[in-house]
Sequence to fold (227 residues):
Amino acid sequence: TQLLEQSPQFLSIQEGENLTVYCNSSSVFSSLQWYRQEPGEGPVLLVTVVTGGEVKKLKRLTFQFGDARKDSSLHITAAQPGDTGLYLCAAVNTDKLIFGTGTRLQVFP
Amino acid sequence: NAGVMQNPRHLVRRRGQEARLRCSPMKGHSHVYWYRQLPEEGLKFMVYLQKENIIDESGMPKERFSAEFPKEGPSILRIQQVVRGDSAAYFCASSPTLQGALNNEKLFFGSGTQLSVL
Fold:
């Protein structure tokens, strides 16, 4: 059973376009994290959202935690080739961090 | 301040051989997590260890896989009698406290070991 479902699974866009990635669950979480992973490397934390309805901005990236703390979204404005990578949401389940299914983003110049 | 160190970066084994993957956590971190990642997929939790203790091994296959984190030295993920399906990237992460990410502290990940079984 996959607790965290991400959509879309793959996304290919042109530089300058906007995009949104979703992370959904039927479970309630106390917090949720977003990571980006580049080929051959481990995931790197981008942000942690804690409060239902919370919105956090990181330059062109906007993260939102759903009011019910069951889902989250990542919106990228004016995507650039440097945004290319695997985006993973993650949440704590009992004593461990579990990851979503991932969204593979490719931004073409 | 060195990050999480994993070695080897790439490991090639033939079916039936043993694979040993090493992870040295960040200095001062006493909690280690192992994850497995198949191509184009997210990370799947395998095991959570504290020094000399296995805290949660609910993600570990029942056979052939074992993990340890001794008092001295790196954490070891051991896979006996490897099969082609074991081919994957194996990532280690560390945290300084028992709660780790529970208190919104981030996990620090290594660069992974890519295991290829021929």
Summary: Residues 33 and 48 of chain B are 4 Å apart (CA to CA).
